[in-house]
Amino acid sequence: MNRTSRRQRLQLEPLVWTGLGVVALIVVIAGVPASTATALQTPRFWPTAAAVIMLVAGLLIASNALAGSRRALSDPVAAQPQDSSGKPAAADPEVLRRYNHLLLIGIIAAYVAALPYLGYVVATFVMAWVLAWTIGVRKILSATLASITYVALTTVIFGILMNVPLPRGRGPFVEISTFFF
């Protein structure tokens, strides 16, 4: 990929995320009715939260892109990733696969298929761990802690706070699920 197309992509991506966030926020405010229920139970809360997160993500991507382009303009050599010896770092070919997106879709499809059998806790832990490994987390402890954190947060938010019935699985996996929710 040449520098021009990469620079154009870096300038377009923040605009897309920021624009999607603004459009989603406008649609939610205009189209979802307000309610007098508590904040987590209103029909407007979660769509608004998602729109705000998209908006903030777009702004963060834009600020990082601006900071990176300023660094690259001031010192192009320093803006490149370097290894411990100070030489430009080579990309890990195992992490940066050409068809990584298809692998991610396959992992999520396997997760959806396994969910009724393994239950939410086990299937989500395995899916999060495999996704972390696939996107480049090569430390077993880091992938495990990230997966445990993800399962804990989503179980608390959806299973406990919002009372969403999560799949418990079949056989011995029911016991594991009842331990958590």
- Uncertain spans, ≥5 residues at pLDDT below 50? none
Largest sheet: none
Shape, per Cα inertia axes: flat
Instruction: Classify the beta-strand content into a percent band.
Output: under 5%
Mean pLDDT: 78
Alpha-carbon distance between the two ends:
48 Å
Order of helices and strands: HHHHH
Structural class by sheet pairing and helices: mainly alpha
Compute the CA-based radius of gyration: 21 Å
Helix content: 55-70%
SS summary, helix count: 5
Q: Total number of β-strand segments?
A: 0
Q: What number of domains? A: 2
Strands, helices and their partners?
Layout: H1 3-31, H2 45-74, H3 100-134, H4 140-161, H5 172-180
Helix pairs in contact: 1-2, 3-4, 3-5
Question: TL;DR of this structure?
Answer:
With 181 residues, this protein is an all-alpha fold. It has helices at residues 3-31, 45-74, 100-134, 140-161, 172-180.
Question: Could you characterize the architecture of this molecule?
Answer:
The protein is mostly helical. The chain folds into two domains: 3-74; 100-180, no CATH class. It contains five helices and no strands. It has helices at residues 3-31, 45-74, 100-134, 140-161, 172-180. Helix 3 (100-134) crosses helix 4. The model has no long low-confidence stretch (mean pLDDT 78).
Can you give keywords for this protein?
single chain; about 180 residues; about 0% strand; mainly alpha; 2 domains; 5 helices
